[in-house]
Amino acid sequence: MGAAGGSVPEVRSELAALWGGEVHDRYGLTEAGPVAAECRAHPGGIHLQDDAFLAEVVDPGGEEPRPEGDEGELVLTGLGRTSSPIIRYRTGDAARLIRGRRCACGRSGTLLEGGVRRLFSARSRERGEDRGRFPGVGGFFALRSSVDLPSAAPEGR
Ligand SMILES: [Zn+2]
Prior knowledge:
By secondary structure, the chain is mainly beta. It has a domain at 26-126: Luciferase, domain 3 (Roll). It contains two helices and eight strands. The chain has helices spanning 9-19, 122-126; strands spanning 26-29, 33-37, 45-48, 53-58, 71-78, 89-98, 111-113, 117-118. It starts with 8 loop residues before the first helix and ends in a 31-residue tail after the last helix.
C-alpha cells in the first residue's frame, strides 16, 4: 500500500499502528516512475535505483553541485527510459546523497539519507520562487513527432 507521508515519523507511526505492519518509505515521481525505496534494514534513508538513475544534488534554485552528504535539490537523469527520458531533471525535492556505505541489507549504492522532502510548495512554484533557469539543468522530455513502425509482414511474402 502506498500513502503520502511515509517518511514523516508521526505518519509512519500512525500507519504502522493502523495497519499493524512495518512501514517502508519509497520515493517516485510521475515524470520518472519509482526512484528509491527503503529496505527492511531501515538504514535511515532510501536506496536509489542506481541501475536506473544518476542522482545529483545542487543548490536549490541554483546550479552549483553540492558536496556529497550536503542537502540540496535532487536532480535526476534516467538511464533506461527511452520513450520519456529525463535528463538532469530538477525534482523540486530536497535530498542528501551518501555513496559507498554498506547497508545491513547488502546494498552499497546511493542512499538518500533521511529520505526526500518537498523543497518548494505549489504556491512558491506559482510565484516562480522554486527554481532558477540555467543551461544544463532542467526538465527535458523528448517526444517523437512520428514513429516508424515495422510492417507486420515483410513485403513480397
Ligand atoms: Zn538497505
